[in-house]
Amino acid sequence: MLRKNHLHIDENDMISDWLVKSMKSLTRGTIEINTENQPAAQIDIFNDKIAINLLQAEFFRAPDDETGLFDKLKTSKEFGHKLSENRLTLSILRKGKEAITLGYKAKPKLSKLITRSDDIQIDSIKETTELKREFKAD
Amino acid sequence: MFSMDKNSNNRRNDSQNQQQQQQQMMSSQLTQVIGQFVGKLVGRNMSLTYSFENLEIDVPKAQGLSGRKLGGAKLTINGKIAITTEMHDARSST
């Protein structure tokens, strides 16, 4: 059943297919996003691994979203599985510290008890909790 | 016999409709999430700078209209894109 606070993606969903294909076509390099001359995020791409370093996570907060984008991503088993199928790894860092890894190189141990997925690894409960708080609307 | 067939057909149609509705909900949820993210990246009333450093993009080979083969490409992007947006009240300008 579809739950409000989880991001469920159908196996044949065209948008997620397009998203994963676009991610796959980026082979290496760096993108820095600055807002008002302050770094907001840095994206590093190398060898099928995309690392998103959120330097100002509050910047990506959605004002009318009670759950928060990060929480939805954290619980998206289907998206993690789709990344694994395409041998892609998405790593989310908070201010340089690894918080969560989704996809091919995710090797969950204890975090599998929380996410119930082989494709989502919580690297740091502390950073994950902080990101969850920063992403959520007030 | 005929009414049983009709009932099972109706049930099948109902379940197909439910599946389609669920798929649409899932797609719209992802679209909403991507929309929120892109909305943030495009920004409102702010300045955003994207700096690209040796960003390599592999454009795969594809088949175009009427079976025409489109060659692949490798793009490398270096440089900055600055976007500054301002919001105006449309009512006050009229």
How much helix, percentage-wise, in residues of chain B? Answer: 40-55%
Low-confidence stretches of chain A: none
User: Tally of extended strands of chain A?
Assistant: 6
Order of helices and strands of chain B, N to C? Answer: HEEEEH
| Total E-strand runs of chain B | 4
Main beta-sheet strand count, sense and barrel state of chain A:
6 strands, mixed
Q: Greatest interface and its residue counts?
A: A-B, 31 and 32 residues
Q: What structural class results from the helix and strand content of chain A?
A: alpha+beta
Structural class of chain B: alpha+beta
Query: What's the gyration radius of chain A in Å?
Result: 14 Å
Order of helices and strands of chain A: HEEEHHEEHEH
What gyration radius of chain B follows from the Cα positions, in whole Å?
24 Å
Span between N and C termini of chain A? 28 Å
Which whole number gives the mean pLDDT of chain B? 74
Count of DSSP helices of chain B? 2
SSE layout and pairings?
The complex is a heterodimer of chains A (138) and B (94).
Chain A: H1 14-25, E1 26-35, E2 38-46, E3 49-54, H2 69-74, H3 77-85, E4 89-94, E5 97-103, H4 112-115, E6 120-122, H5 125-135
Parallel strand pairs in A: 3-4
Antiparallel strand pairs in A: 1-2, 2-3, 4-5, 5-6
Chain B: H1 2-42, E1 47-59, E2 62-63, E3 69-70, E4 73-84, H2 90-93
Antiparallel strand pairs in B: 1-4, 2-3
